[in-house]
Design goal:
Number of helices: 12
Number of strands: 0
Structural class: mainly alpha
Helix content: over 70%
Strand content: under 5%
Radius of gyration: 19 Å
Largest sheet: none
Oligomer: single chain
């Protein structure tokens, strides 16, 4: 393990995170990833709101643990959506290749150049609350667009919109699912078609980013005494994602994005209230 990658003695480590908390975060990650509510926001805010030690851990440790959560979620998505993935692979043609490439380019470029500054400056509870609130307003606004188009009509401009949405979702609290749904709805795709487009452009990003970050983690090794917490989190993320794939069908039933926008605003308001309480104490 390279020196300096993880905190020295005396800094809080995963030996101070109970297996129950690691498992709870894994269970939370699955449904939060499948719904337009931001899994990254929930993994950060829930421990902070509950006063868990996870919120006090070194940033590199939390980031490594979140890679494990995403690995479990990505594996479950590939299994749970295997029929859809197989159908997409069989029908993969030049148009779909263009869609994937153009939707992949903006988040890849922005992530490569700005991922670390974004994580350092925009990963606090206050900035995450701002991302939740901003994303909810955009979702509610975009969902007012007419449902005029089907996913088969998607073209290059639509792919760039979806890619731009994924780039915006690098900001904690925005939500990749929420941003791409908003972009597709604003482009007048029906709600069910918007969900399919959102998944088709997001899945390569989720799998690719997880593979890249996982390879980095593998090269530098796991932090000391973390294997059980990592295994519990990844395993529970896998199980909760696989068990929650039915949520996709619920969201696709021509349902408004308004309830999710309202939930996000309520969570953001709770964070702001807690921050004010902390300032007064």
């Amino acid at each position: 393990m390279a020196e300096g990658l993880y905190p020295p003695s005396g800094v809080k480590t995963f030996s101070e995170l109970s297996l129950a908390q690691a498992a709870a975060l894994g269970l939370l990650h699955g449904p939060a990833e499948l719904l337009p509510v931001s899994s990254s926001a929930h993994v950060t805010l829930v421990p902070w709101l509950l006063g868990w030690r996870y919120a006090e851990l070194d940033g590199e440790l939390r980031k490594a643990f979140e890679v494990a959560l995403h690995a479990g979620t990505a594996a479950a998505l590939l299994i749970g959506l295997r029929t859809e993935v197989a159908e997409a692979a069989r029908g993969f043609d030049s148009r779909r290749a263009m869609m994937v490439a153009l939707s992949f380019l903006p988040p890849a470029v922005v992530g490569y150049r700005l991922e670390r500054p974004i994580e350092r400056r925009l990963g606090t509870p206050g900035t995450i609350a701002a991302g939740l609130a901003a994303g909810s307003l955009v979702m509610a606004w975009a969902d007012r667009a007419p449902q005029e188009r089907r996913r088969e009509e998607a073209g290059a401009v639509d792919a760039l919109w979806l890619g731009g949405a994924q780039a915006c979702a690098l900001v904690p609290g925005v939500s990749r699912n929420g941003a791409t749904l908003a972009a597709a709805r604003r482009r007048r795709f029906g709600r069910a078609d918007a969900n399919v487009l959102s998944r088709h452009v997001a899945l390569p990003i989720i799998v690719g980013a997880t593979a890249l970050k996982g390879s980095r983690l593998a090269r530098r090794g796991l932090p000391p005494r973390t294997s059980r917490a990592f295994a519990a989190g990844a395993g529970c993320a896998f199980a909760s994602t696989l068990a929650s794939t039915w949520l996709i069908r619920q969201v696709e039933r021509n349902r408004s994005l308004a309830p999710y926008a309202a939930y996000r605003l309520a969570l953001a308001a709770l964070v702001v209230w807690r921050l004010r309480q902390n300032q007064q104490s």
